[in-house]
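Marked as duplicate of an earlier ticket. Keeping the data here for the record.
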Amino acid sequence: MQLLESIREKAKTHNKTIVLPEGIEERTLKAADIILAEGIARIILLGDHKKIVEAAGENRLKAIEGATIIDPGHFEEKEAYAEMLYEIRQHKGLTREEAAGLVEDPLYLATLLIKNGVADGEVAGAMNATGDVLRPAFQIIKTLPGISVVSGAFIMIMGESHWGENGVIVFADCAVHPDPSAKELAEIAVMTARTTGAIAGIEPRVAMLSFSTKGSAKHPMAEKVVEATRLAKEMDSSLLIDGELQADAAIVEAIGKIKAPGSPVAGNANVLIFPNLEVGNIAYKLVQRLAGAGAVGPVLQGMAAPINDLSRGCSVEDIVNLVAITVNQAAE
């Protein structure tokens, strides 16, 4: 896909370091080898040093020699990182002994490396559940200033170029927050617009979706979307955004002109913000399966540093692409 190639090429210009805490996982190792060979990112692998070297040899991975390998159980700065974690979490009752144990967990150490400026971002999830990946991220990295919610965007690559921006539409939230308030929905819209620009290189045109267009239906659910649109404009006055819009009014030019005449977004949206997770998740899966669209993501957004979660069924290419996306997020 041309967009994914563009994302990889863009990542090569940033010289960022990404930590992969699942360093002994075979797909992760193969992906790291490709990333290093192509110059997409510098790589830190976490895991047993001997096992990583042996697995790389068995798979004839040459570029992997350029990775930095850190064994969480045996590294010189372990005590310093344990103290860092203790300082961050002592107000939550964490003891020094507990901190020393958690530092040996690659998922915790990965976030501490980011916190300490050693790494710029993290990609994990090939062998860990989403909750396990995100828990240390929420505890240590936290969210961006002014942002209270983390959300997940999917870059949908359509088979026909007239949709969105040359066939690319970004959907959110499809992965994280079940029922956002109007304020949280506004934050999701603003962060998704930033993701769209940073990763896809697209000038975002954001549609806030509902079952109502410009007051065609009166209901608290539609009113939430109207309020979220207003708040998003306050957060970023330069943002091209409109709502509430029905899906057809958002993406079909002729319908947009009829239902929302004069709208700067209707009929030409390339970012679709769904009113809740249920709708967003159903929508992206239907578009993926029924329209045969590529679905890249979820790209997590709202964290103070980029941390992205893989599906445990991911391919080597999925990991490479998500690392490239994470690099571009870090650069932004």
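See parent ticket for discussion. The chain has a mean pLDDT of 94.
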